[in-house]
Q: What sequence folds into this?
Protein backbone atom coordinates (compact mmCIF):
# COMPACT_ATOMS: atom_id res chain seq x y z
CA UNK A 1 0.00 0.00 0.00
CA UNK A 2 1.28 3.46 -0.91
CA UNK A 3 2.07 6.10 1.66
CA UNK A 4 -0.78 8.40 0.57
CA UNK A 5 -3.22 5.50 1.07
CA UNK A 6 -1.97 5.01 4.64
CA UNK A 7 -2.39 8.74 5.20
CA UNK A 8 -5.96 8.69 3.86
CA UNK A 9 -6.90 5.77 6.11
CA UNK A 10 -5.33 7.49 9.11
CA UNK A 11 -7.16 10.74 8.37
CA UNK A 12 -10.52 8.95 8.02
CA UNK A 13 -9.96 7.16 11.30
CA UNK A 14 -8.96 10.40 12.99
CA UNK A 15 -12.05 12.18 11.70
CA UNK A 16 -14.22 9.28 12.88
CA UNK A 17 -12.63 9.31 16.33
CA UNK A 18 -12.92 13.07 16.55
CA UNK A 19 -16.61 13.13 15.60
CA UNK A 20 -17.37 10.39 18.11
CA UNK A 21 -15.47 12.12 20.88
CA UNK A 22 -17.01 15.51 20.11
CA UNK A 23 -20.54 14.13 19.81
CA UNK A 24 -21.30 14.79 23.46
CA UNK A 25 -19.89 18.30 23.69
CA UNK A 26 -20.69 19.81 20.31
CA UNK A 27 -24.47 19.54 20.60
CA UNK A 28 -25.10 20.58 24.17
CA UNK A 29 -28.70 21.51 23.29
CA UNK A 30 -30.30 18.27 22.13
CA UNK A 31 -32.78 15.70 23.39
CA UNK A 32 -32.79 11.93 22.88
CA UNK A 33 -35.87 9.73 23.15
CA UNK A 34 -36.43 6.01 22.75
CA UNK A 35 -38.24 4.49 19.75
CA UNK A 36 -41.22 5.94 17.91
CA UNK A 37 -44.51 4.03 18.26
CA UNK A 38 -48.04 4.63 16.99
CA UNK A 39 -50.40 5.47 19.87
CA UNK A 40 -53.76 6.01 18.15
CA UNK A 41 -55.19 6.88 14.73
CA UNK A 42 -57.47 9.91 14.39
CA UNK A 43 -59.82 11.23 11.71
CA UNK A 44 -58.07 14.57 11.24
CA UNK A 45 -55.06 16.73 12.09
CA UNK A 46 -54.27 16.75 15.81
CA UNK A 47 -53.81 20.36 16.92
CA UNK A 48 -53.91 20.04 20.72
CA UNK A 49 -53.85 17.33 23.41
CA UNK A 50 -54.40 17.17 27.17
CA UNK A 51 -54.83 14.39 29.72
CA UNK A 52 -58.61 13.84 30.04
CA UNK A 53 -59.54 15.09 33.55
CA UNK A 54 -63.20 14.03 33.23
CA UNK A 55 -62.44 10.36 32.58
CA UNK A 56 -59.37 10.35 34.87
CA UNK A 57 -58.14 7.03 33.47
CA UNK A 58 -55.12 8.12 31.45
CA UNK A 59 -57.15 8.90 28.31
CA UNK A 60 -56.07 11.79 26.08
CA UNK A 61 -58.41 14.62 25.06
CA UNK A 62 -57.72 15.63 21.44
CA UNK A 63 -58.56 18.78 19.50
CA UNK A 64 -58.55 18.32 15.71
CA UNK A 65 -59.55 20.34 12.65
CA UNK A 66 -62.87 18.46 12.68
CA UNK A 67 -63.90 17.90 16.32
CA UNK A 68 -63.00 17.31 19.97
CA UNK A 69 -62.24 13.65 20.72
CA UNK A 70 -61.22 11.46 23.63
CA UNK A 71 -59.27 8.22 23.44
CA UNK A 72 -60.68 4.87 24.55
CA UNK A 73 -57.66 2.62 24.33
CA UNK A 74 -56.81 2.57 20.63
CA UNK A 75 -60.17 4.11 19.59
CA UNK A 76 -61.27 7.77 19.58
CA UNK A 77 -64.76 9.01 20.45
CA UNK A 78 -66.16 12.32 19.11
CA UNK A 79 -67.41 14.85 21.66
CA UNK A 80 -68.18 17.76 19.29
CA UNK A 81 -68.62 18.25 15.56
CA UNK A 82 -66.81 21.48 14.73
CA UNK A 83 -63.19 22.48 14.17
CA UNK A 84 -61.71 22.39 17.70
CA UNK A 85 -58.10 23.45 17.14
CA UNK A 86 -57.59 24.49 20.75
CA UNK A 87 -59.16 23.91 24.15
CA UNK A 88 -58.44 23.95 27.86
CA UNK A 89 -60.06 22.09 30.75
CA UNK A 90 -60.99 24.71 33.34
CA UNK A 91 -62.05 21.98 35.77
CA UNK A 92 -62.95 18.29 35.72
CA UNK A 93 -66.32 18.93 34.02
CA UNK A 94 -66.01 22.03 31.82
CA UNK A 95 -63.91 22.51 28.70
CA UNK A 96 -63.47 25.82 26.87
CA UNK A 97 -63.10 25.03 23.17
CA UNK A 98 -61.87 27.29 20.37
CA UNK A 99 -64.31 27.23 17.43
CA UNK A 100 -61.83 28.74 15.01
CA UNK A 101 -63.95 28.90 11.87
CA UNK A 102 -66.78 30.68 13.71
CA UNK A 103 -64.49 33.15 15.56
CA UNK A 104 -65.59 32.25 19.08
CA UNK A 105 -65.08 30.17 22.22
CA UNK A 106 -67.59 27.58 23.43
CA UNK A 107 -68.05 25.92 26.83
CA UNK A 108 -68.64 22.15 26.88
CA UNK A 109 -70.10 20.59 30.04
CA UNK A 110 -68.94 16.96 29.93
CA UNK A 111 -71.36 15.82 32.63
CA UNK A 112 -74.52 17.06 30.87
CA UNK A 113 -73.14 17.10 27.29
CA UNK A 114 -74.24 20.72 26.92
CA UNK A 115 -72.46 23.19 24.65
CA UNK A 116 -72.86 26.99 24.86
CA UNK A 117 -71.22 30.05 23.32
CA UNK A 118 -68.81 31.48 25.88
CA UNK A 119 -66.98 34.42 24.22
CA UNK A 120 -66.92 36.06 20.80
CA UNK A 121 -69.74 36.16 18.26
CA UNK A 122 -70.22 32.68 16.81
CA UNK A 123 -71.30 32.68 13.18
CA UNK A 124 -70.67 36.39 12.60
CA UNK A 125 -67.71 37.72 10.67
CA UNK A 126 -64.49 37.86 12.62
CA UNK A 127 -63.51 41.18 14.18
CA UNK A 128 -61.45 42.91 16.83
CA UNK A 129 -63.58 44.30 19.64
CA UNK A 130 -63.02 44.25 23.38
CA UNK A 131 -66.15 43.94 25.50
CA UNK A 132 -68.60 41.62 27.23
CA UNK A 133 -69.98 38.38 25.77
CA UNK A 134 -72.56 40.23 23.66
CA UNK A 135 -70.11 42.44 21.75
CA UNK A 136 -66.56 40.99 22.00
CA UNK A 137 -65.07 39.83 18.71
CA UNK A 138 -62.21 37.52 17.68
CA UNK A 139 -60.78 36.68 14.26
CA UNK A 140 -59.73 33.05 13.83
CA UNK A 141 -58.65 32.36 17.42
CA UNK A 142 -56.39 29.35 17.91
CA UNK A 143 -55.33 28.35 21.43
CA UNK A 144 -56.63 28.99 24.94
CA UNK A 145 -54.98 28.49 28.31
CA UNK A 146 -55.66 29.41 31.96
CA UNK A 147 -53.76 32.52 33.05
CA UNK A 148 -51.26 31.30 35.67
CA UNK A 149 -51.17 34.83 37.15
CA UNK A 150 -54.96 34.91 37.61
CA UNK A 151 -56.89 31.61 37.31
CA UNK A 152 -60.15 33.55 36.79
CA UNK A 153 -58.84 34.62 33.37
CA UNK A 154 -58.12 32.75 30.15
CA UNK A 155 -55.47 33.73 27.61
CA UNK A 156 -56.34 33.34 23.91
CA UNK A 157 -54.18 33.63 20.81
CA UNK A 158 -56.21 35.71 18.35
CA UNK A 159 -54.24 34.62 15.31
CA UNK A 160 -55.60 36.81 12.49
CA UNK A 161 -55.62 39.88 14.75
CA UNK A 162 -51.97 39.18 15.69
CA UNK A 163 -52.91 39.63 19.34
CA UNK A 164 -52.93 37.98 22.74
CA UNK A 165 -56.39 38.36 24.28
CA UNK A 166 -57.86 37.71 27.74
CA UNK A 167 -61.31 36.31 28.64
CA UNK A 168 -62.94 36.45 32.07
CA UNK A 169 -64.08 32.94 33.01
CA UNK A 170 -67.19 34.16 34.85
CA UNK A 171 -68.45 36.86 32.49
CA UNK A 172 -66.89 36.09 29.11
CA UNK A 173 -65.58 39.68 28.95
CA UNK A 174 -62.96 39.91 26.20
CA UNK A 175 -59.96 42.24 26.46
CA UNK A 176 -56.52 42.69 24.87
CA UNK A 177 -53.27 41.77 26.63
CA UNK A 178 -50.96 42.95 23.84
CA UNK A 179 -51.06 43.26 20.06
CA UNK A 180 -47.36 43.86 19.52
CA UNK A 181 -44.67 41.33 18.65
CA UNK A 182 -46.87 38.60 17.16
CA UNK A 183 -47.52 37.39 13.63
CA UNK A 184 -50.29 34.79 13.54
CA UNK A 185 -49.87 33.57 17.15
CA UNK A 186 -51.04 29.99 17.71
CA UNK A 187 -49.77 27.72 20.53
CA UNK A 188 -48.91 28.92 24.04
CA UNK A 189 -47.83 27.43 27.35
CA UNK A 190 -46.72 28.43 30.83
CA UNK A 191 -43.37 27.24 32.10
CA UNK A 192 -40.70 28.45 34.52
CA UNK A 193 -43.00 31.38 35.46
CA UNK A 194 -43.10 32.66 31.91
CA UNK A 195 -45.57 32.56 29.01
CA UNK A 196 -44.20 31.13 25.77
CA UNK A 197 -46.07 31.89 22.53
CA UNK A 198 -45.56 30.26 19.12
CA UNK A 199 -46.25 32.41 16.05
CA UNK A 200 -47.21 30.39 12.99
CA UNK A 201 -45.01 32.72 10.97
CA UNK A 202 -41.92 30.84 12.09
CA UNK A 203 -40.85 32.05 15.54
CA UNK A 204 -41.24 31.68 19.33
CA UNK A 205 -41.73 34.61 21.73
CA UNK A 206 -41.75 35.12 25.48
CA UNK A 207 -44.34 37.40 27.10
CA UNK A 208 -43.46 39.32 30.24
CA UNK A 209 -45.34 41.80 32.40
CA UNK A 210 -44.12 45.00 34.04
CA UNK A 211 -45.02 46.15 37.55
CA UNK A 212 -48.00 48.13 36.20
CA UNK A 213 -49.22 44.97 34.37
CA UNK A 214 -48.20 46.10 30.88
CA UNK A 215 -47.31 43.11 28.68
CA UNK A 216 -44.55 42.95 26.09
CA UNK A 217 -43.30 40.24 23.75
CA UNK A 218 -39.66 39.32 23.15
CA UNK A 219 -38.52 37.12 20.27
CA UNK A 220 -36.60 34.10 21.59
CA UNK A 221 -35.94 31.95 18.52
CA UNK A 222 -36.76 31.96 14.82
CA UNK A 223 -37.78 34.84 12.53
CA UNK A 224 -40.31 35.76 9.85
CA UNK A 225 -38.21 33.73 7.40
CA UNK A 226 -38.97 30.02 7.28
CA UNK A 227 -36.33 27.28 7.12
CA UNK A 228 -34.88 24.33 8.97
CA UNK A 229 -31.90 25.56 10.96
CA UNK A 230 -30.65 25.01 14.50
CA UNK A 231 -28.82 27.61 16.54
CA UNK A 232 -29.23 30.71 18.67
CA UNK A 233 -31.95 33.35 18.45
CA UNK A 234 -32.98 34.48 14.99
CA UNK A 235 -30.38 32.20 13.40
CA UNK A 236 -32.70 29.27 14.12
CA UNK A 237 -35.42 28.61 11.55
CA UNK A 238 -38.84 26.91 11.66
CA UNK A 239 -41.41 26.25 8.95
CA UNK A 240 -44.88 26.83 10.43
CA UNK A 241 -44.46 25.89 14.10
CA UNK A 242 -47.69 25.34 16.04
CA UNK A 243 -47.24 24.25 19.68
CA UNK A 244 -44.76 24.37 22.54
CA UNK A 245 -44.56 22.15 25.63
CA UNK A 246 -42.26 22.28 28.64
CA UNK A 247 -40.46 18.96 29.20
CA UNK A 248 -37.78 19.89 31.76
CA UNK A 249 -36.57 22.94 33.65
CA UNK A 250 -35.67 25.47 31.00
CA UNK A 251 -36.31 23.08 28.10
CA UNK A 252 -39.29 23.03 25.73
CA UNK A 253 -40.38 21.03 22.70
CA UNK A 254 -41.61 23.02 19.66
CA UNK A 255 -43.57 21.39 16.83
CA UNK A 256 -41.94 22.36 13.51
CA UNK A 257 -44.89 21.25 11.38
CA UNK A 258 -43.70 21.37 7.80
CA UNK A 259 -40.18 20.16 8.61
CA UNK A 260 -41.87 17.13 10.25
CA UNK A 261 -39.79 17.55 13.40
CA UNK A 262 -39.80 18.40 17.05
CA UNK A 263 -37.17 20.95 18.01
CA UNK A 264 -35.86 21.68 21.47
CA UNK A 265 -35.77 25.21 22.87
CA UNK A 266 -33.17 25.56 25.62
CA UNK A 267 -34.03 28.74 27.53
CA UNK A 268 -30.78 28.45 29.54
CA UNK A 269 -28.72 28.81 26.37
CA UNK A 270 -31.37 30.61 24.25
CA UNK A 271 -30.72 27.99 21.59
CA UNK A 272 -32.73 25.68 19.34
CA UNK A 273 -31.40 22.12 19.24
CA UNK A 274 -32.38 18.81 17.63
CA UNK A 275 -34.65 16.08 18.98
CA UNK A 276 -33.76 12.48 18.09
CA UNK A 277 -35.60 9.20 18.60
CA UNK A 278 -34.14 6.81 16.01
CA UNK A 279 -31.05 5.70 17.92
CA UNK A 280 -28.68 8.30 16.45
CA UNK A 281 -25.29 8.19 18.17
CA UNK A 282 -24.87 11.91 17.51
CA UNK A 283 -28.07 13.97 17.51
CA UNK A 284 -27.14 16.73 15.05
CA UNK A 285 -30.12 17.41 12.75
CA UNK A 286 -33.08 15.74 14.46
CA UNK A 287 -35.33 12.83 13.52
CA UNK A 288 -38.28 13.23 11.15
CA UNK A 289 -41.83 12.01 11.76
CA UNK A 290 -43.93 10.28 9.06
CA UNK A 291 -45.99 13.46 8.42
CA UNK A 292 -46.48 17.05 9.57
CA UNK A 293 -46.10 17.66 13.32
CA UNK A 294 -48.72 19.92 14.93
CA UNK A 295 -49.04 19.22 18.66
CA UNK A 296 -47.08 17.82 21.59
CA UNK A 297 -47.96 16.68 25.12
CA UNK A 298 -45.66 15.39 27.87
CA UNK A 299 -47.15 12.93 30.39
CA UNK A 300 -44.55 11.72 32.89
CA UNK A 301 -41.78 10.02 30.88
CA UNK A 302 -43.87 9.81 27.67
CA UNK A 303 -44.24 12.43 24.94
CA UNK A 304 -47.30 12.31 22.66
CA UNK A 305 -46.92 13.90 19.23
CA UNK A 306 -49.96 14.85 17.12
CA UNK A 307 -49.59 14.48 13.35
CA UNK A 308 -51.91 14.65 10.31
CA UNK A 309 -54.19 11.74 11.20
CA UNK A 310 -52.54 9.95 14.10
CA UNK A 311 -50.71 10.36 17.39
CA UNK A 312 -47.27 8.89 17.97
CA UNK A 313 -45.49 8.34 21.25
CA UNK A 314 -41.82 8.59 22.18
CA UNK A 315 -40.41 7.69 25.58
CA UNK A 316 -37.78 9.59 27.54
CA UNK A 317 -34.77 7.50 28.63
CA UNK A 318 -34.89 6.72 32.35
CA UNK A 319 -33.21 9.01 34.87
CA UNK A 320 -29.85 7.59 35.88
CA UNK A 321 -27.29 8.22 38.61
CA UNK A 322 -23.56 7.52 38.78
CA UNK A 323 -21.72 5.51 41.39
CA UNK A 324 -18.85 7.48 42.94
CA UNK A 325 -16.56 6.86 45.89
CA UNK A 326 -16.17 9.51 48.55
CA UNK A 327 -13.79 10.45 51.34
CA UNK A 328 -14.54 12.95 54.12
CA UNK A 329 -12.17 15.03 56.27
CA UNK A 330 -12.68 17.30 59.28
CA UNK A 331 -11.30 20.68 58.28
CA UNK A 332 -12.03 24.40 58.51
CA UNK A 333 -13.39 25.22 55.05
CA UNK A 334 -11.99 28.78 55.25
CA UNK A 335 -8.48 27.29 54.95
CA UNK A 336 -9.33 26.15 51.41
CA UNK A 337 -10.60 29.52 50.19
CA UNK A 338 -7.41 30.83 48.54
CA UNK A 339 -6.17 29.74 45.09
CA UNK A 340 -2.98 28.20 46.48
CA UNK A 341 -4.95 25.80 48.68
CA UNK A 342 -7.24 24.83 45.80
CA UNK A 343 -4.27 24.01 43.56
CA UNK A 344 -2.67 22.00 46.36
CA UNK A 345 -5.91 20.08 46.93
CA UNK A 346 -6.21 19.32 43.22
CA UNK A 347 -2.71 17.79 43.26
CA UNK A 348 -3.55 15.71 46.33
CA UNK A 349 -6.67 14.34 44.59
CA UNK A 350 -4.65 13.35 41.54
CA UNK A 351 -2.16 11.47 43.73
CA UNK A 352 -5.00 9.80 45.63
CA UNK A 353 -6.57 8.76 42.32
CA UNK A 354 -4.01 6.03 41.65
CA UNK A 355 -4.35 4.56 45.15
CA UNK A 356 -8.14 4.43 44.86
CA UNK A 357 -7.89 2.83 41.42
CA UNK A 358 -5.78 0.05 42.88
CA UNK A 359 -8.16 -0.47 45.82
CA UNK A 360 -11.25 -0.71 43.62
CA UNK A 361 -9.67 -2.95 41.00
CA UNK A 362 -11.08 -5.29 39.65
CA UNK A 363 -14.55 -4.48 41.04
CA UNK A 364 -15.03 -0.92 39.80
CA UNK A 365 -13.22 1.30 37.28
CA UNK A 366 -12.90 5.03 37.85
CA UNK A 367 -14.20 7.25 35.05
CA UNK A 368 -11.64 8.27 32.46
CA UNK A 369 -13.74 11.24 31.30
CA UNK A 370 -15.14 12.79 34.51
CA UNK A 371 -12.73 14.49 36.87
CA UNK A 372 -12.72 14.04 40.66
CA UNK A 373 -14.51 16.84 42.50
CA UNK A 374 -14.88 18.19 46.02
CA UNK A 375 -16.98 20.43 48.21
CA UNK A 376 -16.53 21.77 51.72
CA UNK A 377 -19.43 22.69 54.00
CA UNK A 378 -19.94 22.77 57.78
CA UNK A 379 -16.25 22.00 58.40
CA UNK A 380 -16.37 18.77 56.38
CA UNK A 381 -14.34 18.36 53.19
CA UNK A 382 -15.81 15.78 50.78
CA UNK A 383 -13.86 14.34 47.86
CA UNK A 384 -15.57 12.42 45.04
CA UNK A 385 -14.13 10.00 42.48
CA UNK A 386 -16.73 9.01 39.83
CA UNK A 387 -16.75 5.51 38.34
CA UNK A 388 -17.93 4.30 34.93
CA UNK A 389 -20.96 2.64 36.52
CA UNK A 390 -24.39 4.27 36.05
CA UNK A 391 -27.59 2.92 37.63
CA UNK A 392 -31.36 3.55 37.38
CA UNK A 393 -32.81 6.23 39.63
CA UNK A 394 -34.67 3.68 41.76
CA UNK A 395 -31.41 2.07 42.94
CA UNK A 396 -31.53 3.22 46.56
CA UNK A 397 -28.52 1.91 48.51
CA UNK A 398 -25.10 2.20 46.81
CA UNK A 399 -23.58 -0.01 49.53
CA UNK A 400 -25.51 -3.01 48.16
CA UNK A 401 -23.43 -2.79 44.99
CA UNK A 402 -20.22 -3.74 46.84
CA UNK A 403 -19.33 -7.38 47.42
CA UNK A 404 -17.76 -8.73 50.60
CA UNK A 405 -14.29 -9.05 49.07
CA UNK A 406 -14.15 -5.34 48.28
CA UNK A 407 -15.52 -4.38 51.70
CA UNK A 408 -12.80 -6.42 53.42
CA UNK A 409 -10.17 -4.89 51.18
CA UNK A 410 -11.24 -1.35 52.07
CA UNK A 411 -11.29 -2.12 55.80
CA UNK A 412 -7.61 -3.10 55.93
CA UNK A 413 -5.54 -0.82 58.21
CA UNK A 414 -3.07 -0.06 55.43
CA UNK A 415 -5.86 0.98 53.07
CA UNK A 416 -7.51 3.22 55.67
CA UNK A 417 -4.26 4.95 56.50
CA UNK A 418 -3.57 5.53 52.80
CA UNK A 419 -6.78 7.54 52.58
CA UNK A 420 -5.45 10.30 54.86
CA UNK A 421 -4.19 13.53 53.29
CA UNK A 422 -1.32 15.87 54.06
CA UNK A 423 -2.21 19.50 53.39
CA UNK A 424 -0.21 22.70 53.78
CA UNK A 425 -2.04 25.85 54.89
CA UNK A 426 -1.17 29.51 55.34
CA UNK A 427 -2.47 30.99 58.58
CA UNK A 428 -2.29 34.52 59.95
CA UNK A 429 -0.52 35.05 63.30
CA UNK A 430 0.34 38.12 65.36
CA UNK A 431 1.64 41.18 63.49
CA UNK A 432 -0.23 39.94 60.41
CA UNK A 433 2.59 37.60 59.42
CA UNK A 434 1.78 34.62 57.21
CA UNK A 435 2.92 31.27 58.58
CA UNK A 436 2.70 27.97 56.69
CA UNK A 437 1.73 24.81 58.51
CA UNK A 438 1.60 21.24 57.23
CA UNK A 439 -0.95 18.87 58.67
CA UNK A 440 -1.85 15.20 58.20
CA UNK A 441 -5.62 14.73 58.26
CA UNK A 442 -7.03 11.21 58.53
CA UNK A 443 -10.17 10.31 56.63
CA UNK A 444 -13.40 10.22 58.65
CA UNK A 445 -14.78 6.79 59.54
CA UNK A 446 -18.41 5.75 59.67
CA UNK A 447 -19.86 3.60 62.46
CA UNK A 448 -18.55 0.46 60.71
CA UNK A 449 -15.02 1.84 60.51
CA UNK A 450 -15.18 2.43 56.74
CA UNK A 451 -13.59 5.49 55.16
CA UNK A 452 -13.93 5.10 51.34
CA UNK A 453 -17.69 4.99 50.82
CA UNK A 454 -19.87 4.44 47.74
CA UNK A 455 -22.28 7.31 47.01
CA UNK A 456 -24.57 8.29 44.14
CA UNK A 457 -23.80 11.51 42.24
CA UNK A 458 -25.31 13.06 39.07
CA UNK A 459 -24.34 10.97 36.02
CA UNK A 460 -22.97 13.97 34.10
CA UNK A 461 -20.52 16.68 35.08
CA UNK A 462 -23.10 19.25 33.95
CA UNK A 463 -26.14 18.54 36.13
CA UNK A 464 -28.46 20.15 33.55
CA UNK A 465 -27.67 17.29 31.16
CA UNK A 466 -29.20 13.83 31.08
CA UNK A 467 -27.41 10.50 30.70
CA UNK A 468 -28.40 8.15 27.88
CA UNK A 469 -27.57 4.62 29.09
CA UNK A 470 -27.85 3.12 25.59
CA UNK A 471 -25.51 5.55 23.84
CA UNK A 472 -23.52 6.22 27.02
CA UNK A 473 -23.47 9.96 26.45
CA UNK A 474 -24.62 13.08 28.29
CA UNK A 475 -26.91 15.35 26.31
A:
Amino acid sequence: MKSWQYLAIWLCAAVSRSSTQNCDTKNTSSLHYDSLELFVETSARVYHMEVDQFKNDGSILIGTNKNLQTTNGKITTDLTYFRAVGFTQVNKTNVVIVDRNHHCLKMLNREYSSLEVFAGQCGLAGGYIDGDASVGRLRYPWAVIIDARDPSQLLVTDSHNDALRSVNLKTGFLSTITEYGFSAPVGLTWGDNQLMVVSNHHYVSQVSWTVNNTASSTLIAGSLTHGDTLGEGSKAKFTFPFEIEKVRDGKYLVTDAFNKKLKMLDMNEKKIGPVCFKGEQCCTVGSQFPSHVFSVLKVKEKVYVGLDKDIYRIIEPPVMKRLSFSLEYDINCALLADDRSKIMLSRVMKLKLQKIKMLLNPYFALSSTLRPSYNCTNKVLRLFWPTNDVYPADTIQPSTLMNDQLKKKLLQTKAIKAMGVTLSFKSIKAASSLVSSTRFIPARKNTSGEVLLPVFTPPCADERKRYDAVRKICY
